[in-house]
Amino acid sequence: MVQDSFIVRCGRCGAKNRIPRSRAKERAVCGKCRAPIHFTAEYPERSVQVDERTFGAEVLKFPGAVLALFWAPWCGHCMRLLPLIDELAMEYRGTVKFTKIDMDKSPGLASQYQVMSVPTMIVFKNGQLVNRLVGALPKDQITQHLRPFL
Ligand SMILES: [Zn+2]
Questions:
Q1: Fewer CB within 10 Å, N or C, the chain?
Q2: Band of the pLDDT at 41, cuts 50, 70, 90?
């Protein structure tokens, strides 16, 4: 099921704004304070590739919930999960950010977060690890785990 709109929080006053999906490419302003809303930079419509160099800025410093998928190119389950993560990035744009980390290219992150197997999804909120999902879960189970952060 695809949502026809998404919620974006205003960076100036914090008000929640509902943006129709059909107008996602247009310039939006906050309904309360009229500040321009820049949601494409903060909540991209696809998952963001993250590595050890960008992890701090993209994940830990992000002011909200971020799902980080640890994956590897040799992992079949991961390959099926990657397009799903992109789908979720579009559906949850404005509420949850989706990132992916190639474990082979970022072994330091994998060991820091004790990722023993792929796929593993770790949810961060304001830089804190808040949940860990191991295995290729179906979409409805992933969204269930995201519900507390919406
Ligand atoms: Zn505002």
A1: N
A2: very low
Q: Which residue has the higher pLDDT, 44 or 15?
A: 15
Q: Report which of residues 57 and 23 the model is more confident about.
A: 57
For the entire predicted model, the pTM comes to: 0.74
- The owner of tokens 């960008």 is 54
Q: What tokens does 69 get?
A: 């998928």
Q: 17: how many CB neighbours lie within 10 A of its CB?
A: 18
Ligand 1 centroid vs 57 CA: distance in angstroms?
24
CATH 3.40.30.10 placement within the chain? 43-149
- Tell me if the bond preceding 119 is cis, omega within 30° of 0: yes
Place of tokens 């026809």: 4
* Residue 10 falls in the annotated catalytic set: no
Would you say 41 and 59 are in contact if contact means Cβ atoms under 8 Å apart? Answer: no
Ligand 1 centroid–CA 17 distance in Å is 8
